[in-house]
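Final report, closing paragraph on structural work. Over the funding period we assembled a curated collection of sequence-structure pairs, and we close with a single example.
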Amino acid sequence: MVSIREVKEEDNAALGAVIRQVLIDIGVPKVGTAYADPELDFMFQAYQKERSAYFVIEEEGVVLGGAGIAPLTGEDPSICELQKMYFLSNARGKGLGQKMMNHCLAFAKVQNFELCYLETLPYMKAAQKLYLKTGFDYITGPMGNTGHTSCNVWLTKTL
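Its predicted structure, as stored:
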């Protein structure tokens, strides 16, 4: 059975490996993307901040991926960012992305965020399709200070 839960400290190594594997599989640049983020090996610690959470999706104790919500650095406190939403290839195409999006956006609403921002890469078409289906719209430029200079597709959703 597949479940979504908050990240635990013991998930750190598995999440770092999953995220890096997904990024390598899809050919993401190692600079200017999540691949270079220092918190990849410390996801539990990175999401202990106020109004932040990272959720893990697992099946029979195996981490398949995850996604997080946190205030968007350098922006109004009413704006959050959907962060590091990645799933192993064997978890894709099963509706898990939609479940995770719904879970993350519900958390964002409880935290009184009014707008959710995300950024991605042009060739991540399946992800973009999911974002649009969930009510995100394209915007013309980046928001906040994410450090992801290689990500040049930006979307927002009013919550």
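The helical segments are 12-25, 43-46, 96-110, 125-133. Residues 96-110 form the longest helix (15 residues). We thank the funder for supporting this effort.
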